[in-house]
Design goal:
Rossmann fold; seven-stranded mixed sheet; 6 helices; binds S-adenosylmethionine
């Protein structure tokens, strides 16, 4: 099936199945293949609006799980009390605002954050968002926790992958079928956070 048709198929399917956006299928495919989340997990979803990944995460974590969603934009969908939403910029938000005063670490961090595309320097801005995620990880992710983050493949991608490999036991780049072929969108999937390691922080 051509990519365009595939895109339209996922769009229609999302509507029919009650997901807020077709991006739901990317996380469903990631979860099916990579088993990032488990029932009862606390999940952080960075760049969560309009909320389709939150819907998928809730299905996996079940009644005892929790999801914290962060986005620059307001999430309009009304979720149940397992979800805590924070409107703000990932570059400005502090770890405590995410973990809460009790410092509850997450078992999984997801980032589908994407810069506003301008056609110039988008991949570098996307990589900076990922480095911000890696910068937050030591203060928010539990030992042996997992991470999935979106990145536009570009000049920074090899360094980003290298930095992620320095912090996790197992790291791979992955492109879900539900991602459009024309986009350079990839997901870095990392299992088994090893505390004590920090990113090298290129730019
Ligand atoms: C592709 S959308 C996410 C879709 C979402 N995963 C879903 O399934 O509904 C990317 C989101 O990243 C957010 N974003 C971009 N930069 C951000 C930043 N610095 N801090 C927080 N959110 C950001 C955008 O506002 C946008 O809503």
């Amino acid at each position: 099936m051509a990519r365009r048709e595939l895109h339209d198929r996922f769009f229609k399917q999302a509507k029919a199945e009650g997901y807020l956006a077709r991006s739901a299928y990317k996380l469903l495919q990631i979860q099916e293949l990579k088993r990032l989340m488990r029932p009862g997990d606390r999940v952080l979803d960075l760049g969560c609006a309009p909320g389709a990944w939150i819907q998928v995460a809730l299905e996996v974590v079940g009644p005892k799980g929790r999801v914290v969603g962060v986005d620059l934009q307001e999430v309009r969908h009304a979720f149940d009390p397992r979800v805590h939403l924070v409107q703000g910029d990932a570059f400005e938000i502090g770890a405590e605002e995410l973990t809460g005063p009790a410092g509850g670490l997450f078992q999984v961090v997801l980032s589908d954050m994407a810069p506003n595309t301008s056609g110039h320097g988008d991949d570098a801005r996307s990589a900076r968002l990922c480095w911000r995620v890696l910068e937050l990880v030591p203060d928010i992710l539990a030992p042996a926790g997992n991470l999935a983050m979106k990145v536009l493949e570009g000049a920074d991608y090899p360094n980003l992958l290298k930095d992620t490999k320095g912090m996790f036991a197992q790291v791979k780049g992955y492109k879900p079928k539900a991602s459009r072929d024309v986009s350079r969108e990839m997901y870095i999937i990392a299992h088994g956070y090893v505390p004590g390691k920090t990113p090298r922080m290129v730019p």
